[in-house]
Amino acid sequence: MDAVRKRPGMYVQGGTGIDGYHQLLTEIIDNGIDEGLAGFADEIEIVLHAGGAATVTDNGRGIPVDIMKSKGRPAIEVIFSELHAGGKFGQGAYKVSGGLHGVGSTVVNALSTYLDVTVNKHGQLHHVRFEKGVLVQPLEVLGATPGDVKWSTKVSFHPDPAIFKEFDNQFDYTRIRNRLRELAYLTGLKIVIRDERTELHGGEVKEEIFHEKGGIANFARALVTDDSKLLYDQPVVMRGTHAEVEVEVAFIHANTYASDNILTYANMIRTRDGGTPLTGFKTAYTRVLNKYAASKNLIKAGNPVPSGDDLLEGIYCVVSVKVGDPQFESQAKVKLLNSEAQTAVNAIVGEKFAQFLEENPKIGKTIVEKAAEAARARDAARKARDIVRRSNPLENDDLPGKLADCSSQDPAESELFIVEGNSAGGSAKGGRERRFQAILPLRGKILNVEKAELNKILKNAEIRSLIGAIGAGFDGKGEEMRFDLENLRYHKIVIMTDADMDGGHITTLLLTFFFRFMRPVVEQGHLYIAQPPLYKITVGAQTKNNKGVYLFTNEELKEHVAEATKAGKKYEIQRFKGLGEMNADQLWETTMNPETRVLKRVSIDDLIIANEIFDALMGSEVAPRKDFIRENARFAEISV
């Protein structure tokens, strides 16, 4: 346990930051999910308490409380205090489990200020308590189980703030509920989340229930947020077992340009980099579709033959496998390595998809026609490939905003600031640290890539300058248009726009571009949004030691004004309507100096939510955009 507390990064995904903090809750939730997968539980409840604690209950079998002969101690104490002692190993192990090393419960215990476990078993409530991994209350019987207790295991814990110093010790409700919704689709379990932190929800306790009886088919369907774009009504679903690997696949096609909306799961764990199940699916899918198109003469003579990417354009797919001994690339579990999973997916999709196409020729023709259209678009865009492959793009006079590059050749320390217009660009160039900060001014708003075809996107001057400056290509069509993260010239890409409606729109356009065509930049944590101040308030006379305070919200301004008024002091307020109004020193001090600036890192925790947001904000349908703005416009301000 001491080893876990000294080196938490070796035992928990995300280390001591926000990811590691949430991983503790994930580990406890996964124990309940494992009970559900084994057929012993059908309901899990998660409660977020005020102060940073959380409780997870499930109605499975209950953690064993009997004495382990080999240890001479109750099993419940061993499971939470010894690494590799979980129920997923040895006799009675789960047939399918998301666990990799069996250290989950023990690690959560070690990294928490306290951990309480109560088990409803044999008609009695059994309880143990740990503090910082140390057993302080050995197994005790609290008494007979009350009639209203429906759960079998209850685990309450509080992540230790001494360990998670980088985070503010508050669970992110949205992040957690997105994962729970995902699990509900994949498992069919009833999952309840209740947030008792009433101060976050207008004085109310917030509760949501997820029970997705439609399963994986509804999951694939939910990835498409605009019904009008669907090419057919119901998802294609394929299930089967091959060599003891359970496979479940569902997909549906839409009239979009995306080809990477394929989510893969191994034992309910999202494998972001895919691995063997993804390879198996793509191999079988493209093989079957190519064979079907050829047998039905669906590709006209003289037209380009669809590539693998063309065949996958517009697909929204979920691939889920269950394997007895999952082998992941790392503890982060982003890629499954089991070769038997690839074989199983390949075999089942190959058989079931071929059968589906023969039984549904109309849908088969629709899918092939979509791929043929993608092939024609790729062929038209081929002429533009030099734009994304030029050996030295920064010497091209075509760039709409002149890149002021940094002198450093080390991408790890280099930063690219994408700024709005020449005015802000001038201040940024004057205020930056030239050694590691580059400035790229853009002329106005870039193209909305959510609505545009690929060849039009590649002709846009601002898009070309972004691709050229970043230097890693972009995800277009075919091998000649691939985004390669290894060639990224800057490991921090910062969007820096005015804090007004126009600036917000430009930010959204840029986010849409990165999400659709440079998604690894977002997934690997390289994209940031600068947070320039809205105000500067100086209370009393401005002196060398009283240069004023920069404020980022109206609430902060109100607080400072109230304090100054109460103290009877005069104050002066400066409102920044745009970055161009700041001089170079102010911009450096408030927005660019690594010691004092505030940057928000952009992340994609949930592909469904991300797709919904970008479709709502940037798609062609007006109604979803109005609904989204109405529900989320909590930050609206009046410029003065």
UniProtKB/TrEMBL annotation:
Database matches in InterPro entries: DNA_gyrase_B_C (IPR002288), HATPase_C_sf (IPR036890), HATPase_dom (IPR003594), Ribosomal_Su5_D2-typ_SF (IPR020568), Ribsml_uS5_D2-typ_fold_subgr (IPR014721), Topo_IIA (IPR001241), Topo_IIA-like_dom_sf (IPR013760), Topo_IIA_B (IPR000565)
Tagged with keyword Nucleotide-binding: yes
Cofactor(s) essential for the protein: Mg(2+)
Molecular function via GO: ATP binding; DNA binding; DNA topoisomerase type II (double strand cut, ATP-hydrolyzing) activity; metal ion binding
Pfam families found in the cross-reference section: DNA_gyraseB, DNA_gyraseB_C, HATPase_c, Toprim
Keyword Iron-sulfur: no
Catalytic activity, reaction form: ATP-dependent breakage, passage and rejoining of double-stranded DNA
Record-stated family: Belongs to the type II topoisomerase GyrB family.
Name by which UniProt lists this protein: DNA topoisomerase (ATP-hydrolyzing)
Enzyme class: isomerase
GO biological process, one term: DNA topological change
Domain Toprim: residue ranges: 414-533
Gene3D superfamilies given in the database record: 3.30.230.10, 3.40.50.670, Histidine kinase-like ATPase, C-terminal domain
Species of origin: Deinococcus sp. VB142
EC number: 5.6.2.2
Superkingdom, natural source: Bacteria
Record keywords: ATP-binding, DNA-binding, Isomerase, Magnesium, Metal-binding, Nucleotide-binding, Topoisomerase
